[in-house]
Amino acid sequence: LLGAAAGLGLVRFALRRLRPAAMSAVAPAYHASAWRRTVLPLVIIGSAEALMNRTGVMLLGWLATTKQAGIYALAFNIAFAAMLPRTAVNTLLAPAISHLFVCKDDSALRAIVARAASWTLIGAGCIALPVLLFAEPILGIFGREFVVGAPALRILMVGQLIAATAGSQLHLMNMTGHERGAAALLVGSAATNAVLAAVLVGPFGPTGAALAATTALILWNAGMALSIWRHLQLLPGLLAVWPDKAQRAAPHGSEAAE
Q: Which pLDDT does position 257 carry in this prediction?
């Protein structure tokens, strides 16, 4: 609570100091109809993300022991740190995606998506590599009993690395008018996570919950990649620039054939 209050105070201070003075004289314009169309999918996305992140903890508490739930919660929170670079990049990426999509600048959109994916992958890799190598000592900081969560931590971290390679697909869908499809895919992934976790937490404990969460995360990113390719003709993450490269190479190939 204190951290949230301090963050709000800093944001308000920065807003007063950094906001251009010219904006004070501009009358705001609201597009209520657009918000009404998008608010439900965005609420579903936020709720499904929260549920997906906590499914393993809840099912371990119900089907196994609260001790195992606590071990998994710690492993999940540590692995979740690999998402921080993607969150930071998305802050700048989201408005850029919207602008380029409206301007129909497909080449620039592909380039910025691939560049953002490269930065998120580098950032996630810098966080993941030490964790993958030293999972036991890191968990041991919180107590010897937490060390048994090392396999779950490594599995979750691998999942985050795969997601980082795919790039910011959720933001890409949301900022190009496909938030309904994004919501449907996320709900399906959350349900898959719940079903798999219910099956795996009994015999495998926190490791089973990690396997379920990672499988659901990979399937979710695969589903988003297919949807983005279908609607935007964009490949995920670092592969986004491939169509442009193929197009640039095509004339040379045709000339050679002639």
A: 41
